[in-house]
Amino acid sequence: MSELGEIWVYLAREPLAALAATLLAWLGALRLQRLCRRHPLANPVLFAVLILAAGLLLSGIDYRSYFEGAQFVHFLLGPATVALAVPLHRQWEAVRRSALLAALSVVTGGLFAAAVGVAIALALGAAPEVVASLAPRSVTTPVAMGIAERIGGLPSLTAALVIASGITGAALGPLVLNLARVEDMRARGLAMGTASHGIGTARALSVSAAAGAFSGLAMGLNALASALLLPLLWHALAG
């Protein structure tokens, strides 16, 4: 117990306090998910965000100060994304046989997702920078923020929209696919990865190795295609 106390005192120091709070929020979120019997709507990412947001509001700590200590977790997004190559490698034969159709599906789905977001924003009379922020909402966060900045959007707003899209897709995606009677795990994985990027991929991996592999493939292809095509299409339409 004394050793645990010493570890806690060490972690409670700045800037490790923010990192410790992030890890504790995630552990609490996992506990809540288990209490909800792993219901699709009980997403641990959503729970962790709510716990951290409530903690920051109650303590009066601004997000910039929190992020200075928690940025190590943000750094791990890169290695975590690269690690998705492992299930992809294990399913390589299935991926190779479906490569062309998978690529066409991802590009079509990614452009459709961008078009729907932009159409809804325009229909609601949103400001131009808000419209631009919605375009890359189905792309993984670091790439989406870069695209938003390039086309005149607000990267911080885009990040929030991407996380919201991922949580919504991870929670409701399997239910929608069940209603559509999509049973092929490859197709389900492609849909989850295209619409819900990393959060959807984590959900797909928890269900099936094949779905997780194709979801990771879709997330990567969608990020690449969107980074190349969205700025070109945006400036062409704007011009």
The general outline is globular
Query: What ranges have pLDDT less than 50 throughout 5 or more consecutive residues?
Result: none
Secondary-structure element sequence?
A: HHHHHHHHHHHHH
Class from secondary-structure proportions: mainly alpha
Radius of gyration over C-alpha positions, nearest whole angstrom: 19 Å
Helical stretch tally: 13
Distance between the termini: 66 Å
Strand content: under 5%
Describe it for me?
This protein is mainly alpha-helical. The protein folds into 2 domains: about 5-75, no CATH class; about 85-239, no CATH class. The protein has 13 helices and no strands. It has helices at about 1-10, 15-35, 45-60, 65-75, 75-85, 85-90, 90-95, 100-125, 130-135, 140-150, 155-180, 185-205, 210-239. Helix 2 crosses helix 3 (about 45-60). The longest helix has 30 residues, at about 210-239.
What key phrases describe this protein's structure?
239 residues, mainly alpha, 2 domains, 13 helices, 83% helix, globular
Topology of this protein?
Blueprint: H1 2-11, H2 16-35, H3 44-59, H4 63-75, H5 77-83, H6 85-90, H7 92-97, H8 99-123, H9 128-134, H10 141-150, H11 155-179, H12 185-207, H13 209-238
Helix pairs in contact: 2-3, 2-4, 8-9, 8-12, 8-13, 10-11, 10-13, 11-12, 12-13
Brief overview, please?
With 239 residues, the protein is mostly helical. The chain has helices at 2-11, 16-35, 44-59, 63-75, 77-83, 85-90, 92-97, 99-123, 128-134, 141-150, 155-179, 185-207, 209-238.
